[in-house]
Design goal:
Blueprint (H helix, E strand, L loop, with lengths): L1 E7 L8 E2 L11 H13 L7 E6 L12 E5 L13 E8 L10 H16 L12 E3 H12 L5 H10 L3 E3 L6 E4 L3 H9 L2
Antiparallel strand pairs: 1-2, 1-5, 3-4, 6-8, 7-8
Length: 191
Amino acid sequence: MKVLLVKRGREPYKGKWAFPGGFLNMDESADVGALRELCEETGLRAANVTQFHTFTAPGRDPRERVISVAYYAFVRLQEVKGGDDAAEASWYRLDDIPPLAFDHEQMFDIAVKSVREKALVDIIGSKLLDDKFYADDLHRIYEAVLGTAVDKEIFVKWIVNTGRVLPLTENAGWYEFNPAWDVKALDVIKP
C-alpha cells in the first residue's frame, strides 16, 4: 500500500511534502473540492473519497485559520504529476514517508488508524479489484492495510460471512462482490 503526496510549490512550506488539498470554491461541497484538488495537484481522478476526520486546531496554517476536512481513497497505482501549486507528486510506501508540512504527519497517523479500523468491520479495497477476483488478491490488500500477516483461511470465511462477497461456484478460489448487498443492507436498516 502506498500514499500519494505532493511537494509544495509555494510558501508556506515550499519544497516540503504534504497531502494534496486546498481551499474550497464557494459553489462546491467538501467531497467535490477534495476530488478537484486531487486532480489539479496530481492528475489523479478518483471515483470517490471517504471522509475520515476534520482537523480544527488553531495555528495549523500560518496564513490564516484553516479547517481541513480530510479524505482517503483507494485507487490503483498510476502515474501522477505535480500540477497547480504542487511542484511534484509521488507515491510513497507507508513505512517511508518523508517529513510532512503543516500537521500532515498527524493526518497521516489518523488516516492509517481510520483505514485499519474500517478494515476490521467492513470490506475495503473493492475499487482495487476486478468484478471477479481471487481471494489471495483481497487477502494481500488486507495484509498491506493492516500491516501484519492475516490467517488466510479465517480471512476467507470472514469475507464470505459478511455477505458482501460471494464465492463463484464455477471457479474455486474466485469471488465476486455481492451486487445485492447494498440493497440488503438498506432493507435491514429501514424503520
